[in-house]
Amino acid sequence: MTLDAVTTVLAIRHGETAWNAETRIQGHIDIPLNERGLAQARLLAEALAGEQIDAVYSSDLQRAQQTAAALASSRELVLHLDARLRERHFGVFEGLTWAEIETQHAEDSARWRRREPDFAAPGGESLQDFYARAVAAVERIALAHPGQTVAVIAHGGVMDCLYRAASRQPLQATRTWKLGNAAVNRLLWSSEGPSLIGWNDDLHLDGLDNEAEG
Question: Is 69 exposed, middle or buried (0-12, 13-18, 19+ CB in 10 A)?
Answer without folding.
Answer: middle
